[in-house]
Design a protein that fits this description.
Shape: globular
Strand content: under 5%
Mean pLDDT: 88
Order of helices and strands: HHHHHHHHHH
Low-confidence stretches: none
Number of strands: 0
Radius of gyration: 19 Å
């Protein structure tokens, strides 16, 4: 595997870990949250710089339904990241406190809530849409063979169980109300065990990854069937 491909994977792993860390604001405190948030934005910029060929190809080639879907998700992730950076700077008491910004707190807080939960869902969905590519690179790197039929069924059932639990957590933790700003006061349990919190968030991430993965498979199969029908 080429060094650039390895670096891309490393960045994706770091961004995923940073995303999970940031969702646990109440577990780590304000200052670490701000520093990791600033680091996340730097990683996001590096991610785009390493994928410069993607930007160059935007005006080239045919736009299939799958390509349109991926572009829409990527554009929404970009918007969310920009909103998070703006709102984070406005509300900052540590990293960007030297800027002395005093106004716009109410709007910034609302944008940060929207950005946090929509960002989590969209980035997980983005990961799912690219899951086949990531696993393909892993197979090339480690030479893993395709699992037997029984193993594939077991993996599918395990993924389904994680997604079902993730959906239950998604509803129980009231994420829909935060994503629609029906509730602007996020409940934060400062005494919640870190292990339980991250198991819940990993399950929710698994839910959106699974949705993204099967969306990609559905679009690819539809495109293949259309091509064969011509």
């Amino acid at each position: 595997m080429k060094p650039k491909a390895i670096l891309k994977i490393l960045l994706d792993v770091l961004m995923t870990l940073a995303l999970l860390f940031l969702m646990g604001y109440q577990l780590w405190g304000e200052a670490p949250h701000e520093w990791v948030g600033a680091g996340m934005f730097v990683l996001f910029i590096l991610h785009h710089l390493l994928n410069g060929s993607w930007h160059k190809s935007l005006l080239r080639g045919k736009y299939t339904p799958m390509r349109v879907l991926m572009l829409c998700i990527d554009a929404l992730v970009l918007i969310v990241m920009l909103l998070q950076m703006y709102s984070g700077i406005v509300m900052s008491r540590h990293v960007f406190s030297f800027l002395g910004i005093g106004g716009g707190m109410m709007l910034a807080r609302r944008l940060h809530i929207l950005g946090a939960y929509w960002g989590f869902a969209l980035m997980s969905l983005h990961l799912g849409l690219h899951w086949s590519s990531l696993t393909g690179m892993a197979k090339k790197r480690f030479g893993r063979a395709k699992p037997p039929k029984g193993g594939a069924i077991a993996l599918f059932l395990a993924g389904l169980a994680v997604a079902a639990y993730g959906l239950a957590v998604f509803l129980n933790r009231e994420l829909p109300s935060y994503m629609l700003l029906r509730n602007e006061f996020v409940f934060l349990d400062y005494d919640e065990p870190k292990l339980l919190f991250y198991l819940d968030y990993l399950a929710m991430m698994g839910l959106f990854v699974l949705i993204g993965y099967y969306l990609a498979r559905t679009f690819k199969r539809a495109a293949k069937a259309k091509g064969m029908g011509k």
